[in-house]
Model the fold of this input.
Amino acid sequence: DTAVSQTPKYLVTQMGNDKSIKCEQNLGHDTMYWYKQDSKKFLKIMFSYNNKELIINETVPNRFSPKSPDKAHLNLHINSLELGDSAVYFCASSRHTGGGSPLHFGNGTRLTVT
Amino acid sequence: QKEVEQNSGPLSVPEGAIASLNCTYSDRVSQSFFWYRQYSGKSPELIMSIYSNGDKEDGRFTAQLNKASQYVSLLIRDSQPSDSATYLCAPGGLPSGGYNKLIFGAGTRLAVHP
Done:
């Protein structure tokens, strides 16, 4: 069984469109994250939810809106897509928010905006 | 100063040699440290966690931590071509409103040649 699964794996779309990425974890973890990895391979945190509550919101354009219907799911909706949004988006989960809790990553969604 | 600094490489070592990967971090509160391996086109996977000063060994991997110097390293003994990947350093427990936020280094690309 896949521990952290996200869909779709690839997403190709045009500028101005709206798209969503879905993520689910079956590890029983309390905390979920969205990370963005750009073309320089730099992995940067965007959001984190703990038990459906938003706890980390980095400096991300408000075109990005995360939603967590329950602690096993975290989705990311992106409005008015721009060329600069092209990247790989990783969902991740951790047991809790404490400093000793490593992340488990999904396989990533490669978003290409044309 | 960047929060987490790693030499981007590539670090090229012959098969069977020891690969030494280094990481420095700027915060003084992190209590946990993680090393992730990321193959090209894949998601990061956790390979080592270390929480106390000193060495921690797991198979061919040894993590070394020096909190006073804000330095963590990863040694890979008997390097194999399959170890060729990007290695990401991530101090845990960086404060973000009291919640854990893993900040990743840019990664060191390791190339093990036969």
Chain A has no helices and eleven strands. Chain A touches chain B at residues 31, 40-45, 48, 50, 55-56, 90, 94, 97-108 (CB under 8 Å). The mean pLDDT of chain A is 93. The radius of gyration of chain A is 13 Å.
